[in-house]
Structures are given as C-alpha cells and as structure tokens.
Amino acid sequence: MSDRLGGHLVSGHVDGVGTVARADAVGGEQGSRIVEIDAPGPLARFIAGKGSIAIDGVSLTVNEVAGSRFAVNLIPHTRAVTTLGRLKLGDRVNLEVDMLARYVARLIDNGPQSR
User: How far is CA 44 from the centre of its chain?
Assistant: First the structure.
C-alpha cells in the first residue's frame, strides 16, 4: 500500500460465480474481445460501469452494466497473459466485486452507527 495504486484492491476472495453470456472478437481474432457475464443477482448492486471487478483474479474495468449482466473488454495483452482469452459461452468464472463498493453499500444499508 505504500506504492501508487494503479488498479483496484483485490483480496483474492470469491464473492460469487458468474457465467459467460457472450464472448465476441472485436477487430479480428488478434484484437480485443468483448465478454459479457451474468453475475449472481446479489452481486449486481456492486457492479458499476467504469468500476472495477476481478474475474478469475484479474482486475478489470467494467464497460457497461444492464441488470445483472456486465461487459468487459479484454485487450490483446490481457488475452495473452491470462486465461481469460480462452473464455467461451457458458464458462463459469469467479467474481470478486470492488471492495470499496461493499463498504459503501454496508454504510448505506446500516446508516450511521451509534455507540
């Protein structure tokens, strides 16, 4: 934590399992890939467009969200150095939602706590 934070905080916990609903190449097979994932309903509230999510331990930026489905863009480098480049329709993936989103939701849900 003494270094510059260039991504989001990933603790390595699995919050839930999602299912790949779409995986389409953009700009040919060597280009990027748009992957849409159906997240478990209870996790959907923690996923925001331009927010962060970890898929199988890889920190990514969420492109867009529609209900409990969200999309990420896998650039060629990410496809080459992770297992995410091999994702296909129906694959199950481990999801970790943004830690700060969980804390904010808890504060909102519980309101100010008195001693």
Answer: 10
